[in-house]
Amino acid sequence: MDAALGLLRKYYGYSSFRPGQGEVIANAAAGRDTLVLMPTGGGKSLCYQIPALMLPGCAIVVSPLIALMIDQVTALRANGIPAVAIHSNQDERVNREYLYDASQGRVKLIYISPERLMIELENIVASVNVSLIAIDEAHCISQWGHDFRPVYTELSSLKSRLPDVPMMALTATADRLTRQDIAGALGLVDPFAWIGSFDRPNLSIQVFNDPGKAKRVQIISRLIERYHSDSGIVYCLSRKKTEDMHRALEQAGYRSVCYHAGMTPREREMAQRAFVNGDVQVVCATIAFGMGIDKSNIRWVVHNNIPGNIESYYQEIGRAGRDGMPAETILFYNYGDVIMRRQFVDDSGQPEINNEKLDFMQRYAEATVCRRRILLSYFSEESVTDCGNCDNCRNPREKFDGTVLAQKVLSAVIRVNAREGISMIIDILRASYRQDLVQRGYDRLKTYGVGRDLSSRAWHSYILQMIQLGLLEVAYDDNFHLRPTALGMRVVKGQQRIELAVFVDTAFAAKKPGAKGKAGAGYGAKGAGYGAAGGTLFSNDEKLMEVLKRVRKELADREKIAAYMVFHDSALADMVAKRPQDIVAFSQINGAGEKKTARYGEAFVNAIRNFKG
Ligand code: ADP
Ligand code: ZN
């Protein structure tokens, strides 16, 4: 340990390790496999750099982004550590020279992309004395991760090729499932795992529901003014939105730059430098911005559009306040953005898992409980108290002691051996006569019918809250079944009480058709178009109506019955107004009894979910 501390002082000028670093370094240097989970800025790089310095030979660092590699190598060299990066953006002769240097023992770390490593592997194994293999952004290997990269799966052969070399997997974002997946896929042997805390109490969290464009600019302006000598980031969904926001902020008199994939590498580098140097107050960026930026005085992060998953969101807001001082994060939530994201997801390689992640993100945006607790429980970190530093904590919804209610749900989940999803659990609680329920004998369970007093919508809300509070988890790898967590088990046993937010059924509040789809405001409405927003939305609803009529016609044709036998127009109109996203919500549609729900629900729900209006 003294040796490690000596190197820390020597090469980095730091006097002590951050939480986890010392433990990881000691284990890796002793030859053990390691798994490192630390939030962005937690200090992952040192975890492999110091063992690389301690061990004889040369460490291989697998990193997915050339820019990041160059960054790291530059920083290492600046600290006097002989490191090189092998990549396609530099002359092949240089690459060969570096590999030769490594074979001669003159290099301590080689940074390389996974693709390139697989090509060079035999060459490296033959000529280089490999001391350690570090896999950065290791979540990319997991199908359950939010950023799956097929080439990462090839890394699974490394362990068998170099069985005696300790391997380290590092990531800033991984839920429990992804973690297990990483260790398994890489073939880590009895790894020492460091799961750092993801809690960043200095970040305040706020979500604004559907603000218009002027309001957004106003909110951002206030942030800029409040932290006028520091800087912030506005994340936008697309290049165009980035440019729009940039222009609006410039017009408001602030120093702003854009950062997106449409700019040349040189323009991007200049933008990044202006930001890092503090020449601008704000950068309007797509998600590509910020990776590897080690700027500690970012005081605020705004999401102009909803991110596609919690992992990205948490990583992005995590760029604020790295120095531990108070920092503000704001998410502008707008349903239209979710629809747009859905489109991306449908085109992604793995729509099912990504849709689920987007659903979670949306539920987070709509949540009424402490947002930090949702985030922490997402990363399987237990928390039993509200944070006091999010909007829901500061303006709490009416709460009640939900312990007994939660116990009912949990005991139903336990009695079906955690082998059912949310809708079956609700049906058990409410004593439905669903055929598959009766077939499986659930009508004989003790919990059958104990929740008749509440509507399915209410149960749905409470179960979602339970997931968000970390009492239940959804098994993405097992048909989305519900499972109790350790915290949930304590609630069942009466060792822990739990508060829930009172369910308010907004769907039944009187609403004109067309008023529902708040999708439009601020979305695609080019500044002046607000007056026409109602009209736009209405035609949007009409479009959906047309889609639903087509679905109805297909079903009717298939069953050779009249369309109205499937559903009346009034039922379709109700679907347009409520836009049910799942079967439970669908079962609340006027005219959708159990039979029709079971027979037609899926077709309509799918159509509604896929509707890109
Ligand atoms: P990560 O890769 O986890 O996002 P980094 O490894 O880039 O984080 O570290 C973030 C910052 O913290 C860097 O500026 C790094 O030099 C600094 N840092 C890391 N470990 C220590 C330490 N023990 N003491 C002081 N600063 C540290
Ligand atoms: Zn909170």
Please give the structural blueprint.
Blueprint: H1 2-12, H2 21-29, E1 34-37, H3 44-54, E2 58-62, H4 66-78, E3 83-86, H5 92-103, E4 109-112, H6 114-127, E5 130-135, H7 150-153, H8 158-161, E6 167-171, H9 176-186, E7 192-195, E8 203-209, H10 213-226, E9 231-235, H11 239-251, E10 256-259, H12 265-276, E11 282-285, E12 298-303, H13 310-317, E13 327-333, H14 335-347, H15 351-366, H16 371-378, H17 391-394, E14 399-401, H18 403-415, H19 422-429, H20 435-439, H21 456-468, E15 472-475, E16 481-484, H22 486-492, E17 499-501, H23 533-559, H24 563-566, H25 569-578, H26 583-586, H27 594-610
Parallel strand pairs: 1-6, 1-7, 2-4, 2-5, 3-4, 5-6, 8-13, 9-11, 9-12, 10-11, 12-13
Antiparallel strand pairs: 14-17, 15-16
Helix pairs in contact: 1-3, 2-3, 14-15, 18-19, 18-22, 19-21, 23-25, 23-27
The chain binds adenosine-5'-diphosphate and zinc ion.
